[in-house]
Specification:
Blueprint: H1 2-19, H2 24-38, H3 43-54, H4 57-78, H5 81-90, H6 102-107, H7 116-126, H8 134-145, H9 156-165, H10 169-194, H11 207-217, H12 219-229, H13 235-249, H14 254-264, H15 267-286, H16 288-295, H17 301-318, H18 321-336, H19 343-359, H20 364-373, H21 377-403
Helix pairs in contact: 1-2, 1-16, 1-17, 2-15, 3-15, 4-9, 4-13, 4-14, 4-15, 5-11, 7-8, 7-20, 8-20, 8-21, 9-18, 10-21, 12-13, 15-18, 16-18, 17-18, 17-19, 18-19, 19-21
Length: 404
Amino acid sequence: MIPLFKVAFLIAVFLVLLRKKVDLGLVLALNTALTALLFGMDASGFAAALWGALSSHETLVLVAIVAFVLYLGAYLQNGGHFRVMLDALKNLVREPRLTLAAPSAFMGLLPVPAGAMIGAPIVEEAAKRWGLSPAWKTFLNYWFRHIWEYSWPLYVSLLMAATITRIPIKTLSLVQFPFTLLAAATGLVILFRGVPALPFEENGRKSWPEIQRVLFSLWPVLLTIVLVFVFRLSIEAGLGAASLLAFALSRETLRNRARTLVRSLSPRIILLVFALMAFKGVLESSGALEALAGTLRPGGVSAYVLLFAAPFGVGLLTGMNQAYVAIAFPILLPLFGESRMDLVPAIFAFVSGFAGILLSPAHLCLALTVNYFRADWRDVYRLLVPAVAVVFSAALILLVVSLL
């Protein structure tokens, strides 16, 4: 049981420091050193493990992927591509209520910090026809923005989860895609039950030009999808090609293009990736995971409680996607395994952590959206909690069935 107490201490340090709003990268660095100390690594072994983790191929590939994602988000946002897409979309949707969901859903295709704020003005405008309350506007903008994070391979949290568990990103995206569908369906049921139908207002515009505007506004995202899923390029190669082409075809001056590139590369996020991989590398090299595996029984009830409690608790307290993956997943590795049959615990842990994220008042998207619409938190949670419960229940049922 001693290894379990050591791991519990590491988690407690994480949670206490994050609750005090200490930077996640610093917390990871501290717990990396604590891991080495608690599990008896000498200085030379610690240094070797640290260097090996920071210079490994998987670490460098992950950093490249994150950098490309950040640049494409900045390119599309600064170039006004999102606005063009949303304007065209309003002229295409024949079920008016879908204009309350589609903008935010499209925004979710490419990760952008505080991305829910991009679709908020469109939801605000569309909601005028119904006179929706601030809580409804908050829920619709927030919920549909995040339906993709279970499966869309451009999200850093999913990439990190795939890297830590060594489950191929394409496999993890595919097996978790039903949760994206369920989240979308859940949101639509709530939308259609709570918002009355209205007739479509004909505008006389032809559909095909509007479709072209939507597709053109999202061309880097669509190009990445084609390169990865049709031409079978790696995710980093597909993103790299789309980023290079976006940079070359930008209508901005070369100086402004360079400025967009530099500003998109957040040192804090890049350093966070390195800190995560350092923590993961030291955990593996210190023997902590093997010791934990000897303590936790994969078939025991406490182990499956941990599958929920660790990622959910971190997600709820921090509101940070990277945090629950970075903190909980390395600890839970002994419960995941590497075979295809062991995908279910990893899926359950991911959905549990994301449930905490969605409910966290510290989640930047939720906090900013509530503030933008001046909504009451209690009214927002009355809509949000049942929706989260539906998706989580599906993951719980999947876990229980897999154990029978």
